[in-house]
Amino acid sequence: MFRMAKKTRMSFECRDCGHQVPKMLGRCPECGAWGTMEESAPASIPSHAGTAAGRRIPTQAAQPIRKVSAAQAASVPTGIVELDRVLGGGLVPGGVVLISGEPGVGKSTLLLDCAHQFSAAGHGRSLIVTGEESASQVRRRADRTDSLHDDLYLAAETDLGSALSHVDSVGPGLLILDSVQTVLANDVDGVPGGVTQVKAVATAITAEAKSRNMTAILVGHVTKEGNIAGPRALEHLVDTVVHFEGDKHSSLRLLRGVKNRFGPADEVGCFEMREDGIVSLPDPSGLFLEDSPEEPTPGTCVTVTMEGRRAVPVEIQALVGKSVKDGAIPRHTVSGLETARLNMILAVLTRRGGTPLLDREVYATTIGGMRVREPASDLALALAVVSAEREIAVSADLVAIGEVSLTGQIRRTVNADRRLAEAARLGFTTALVPAGSVTEKPRRMDVIEVGTINDAKREAARAWARRGR
């Protein structure tokens, strides 16, 4: 009898994100890109893989976990306080970090300072392999930011083999590859930045870092949606993923942890972009609070938002304009806030709070370029809008924390104790919070629990009256 040959199943892979599907599609269901699906054959599994002939002698025998030393995985501080916060204490020997961010946000400047601090602290040589700039361009940035050191090495390469040869000759303790999408592995098909190439380059650098006990930092591009460009497998290959973000019109930069095998993955580091480089901001509150005049201005209220594990006070400002006529649609414009949240607050104030605002032009913003996304800022936004509409200022020493529901109720928020502790540290003496959300009240702070938006309006007016006396 004749046995039919087993048919090989083909799959289709997106060259932008690496998503695989069993049939051809015009649009990738993962990243939404058109015309990026390419045919690929699945990797074959050797028939002898599970047999005795296919087994190999392990490089190291398995040991009881109590006998395995954890000293090699101890973090090495970079000397950049906010970077160490996000990384969980510093750089881990043998660890691989992927940092992504918009073009021009300051990734290369931050990593140049990191390499300089690493070598200046005596941790060994650091090597920057740049595929996007020439060596002279990086040298000019180093002059401007005062990041020169004898143990800081620089090479401009776009070939993976040449980059690894530089690693052999320098023997660095820290390798920075800027960026992974610009390096080409000659023994792998595909163009630089493609799925196959990015996976091959990242795999080779990861293997080199593990074998040498060397820390490697890979710089990754982002898509127009803000996601890391390339295959999703890239994030699985590395140990830590961080995202560097910031508005080009603001000096504020935030480094957010996305994944971290060596520490918390929800930490946020704050930096300020200056002419001479990027500096850490261990206490960034001054950026998000406007200098208070002698008399508070109507239309402002302070809240405390959570950025990762960090409590950050933010001032919200609102301006209520004239009523629109003849059926025109009023403008509701925000900066640093969500338009949907503002529209919801206006509807609640109109229906539940007795303040008709849906036909008014309303503008709301945050100070310092901070982006506030969490619902805990609802109460402060509502009080700022009411304050602007009535031309009555909110007390300058008051903070408001709470989510406003569609029924006008003030709902509980997480980490209320941590928020109030930060507000008390900065000198705020009065806080409006949802009922039952606080377990430990800070000293010298009057914590007032409110159940509805009307309760909050009334207590805010009383706080202003007490301050006037």
Automatic annotation (TrEMBL):
Protein keywords: ATP-binding, DNA damage, DNA repair, DNA-binding, Hydrolase, Metal-binding, Nucleotide-binding, Stress response, Zinc, Zinc-finger
Binding sites annotated in the UniProt record for ATP: G101, E102, P103, G104, V105, G106, K107, S108
Span of the signal peptide: none
InterPro entries, per the entry: AAA+_ATPase, DNA_repair_RadA, P-loop_NTPase, RecA_ATP-bd, Ribosomal_Su5_D2-typ_SF, Ribsml_uS5_D2-typ_fold_subgr, Rubredoxin_2
A Pfam family hit: Zn_ribbon_LapB
PANTHER family: DNA REPAIR PROTEIN RADA, DNA REPAIR PROTEIN RADA-LIKE PROTEIN
Protein name: DNA repair protein RadA
Organism whose genome encodes this protein: Salininema proteolyticum
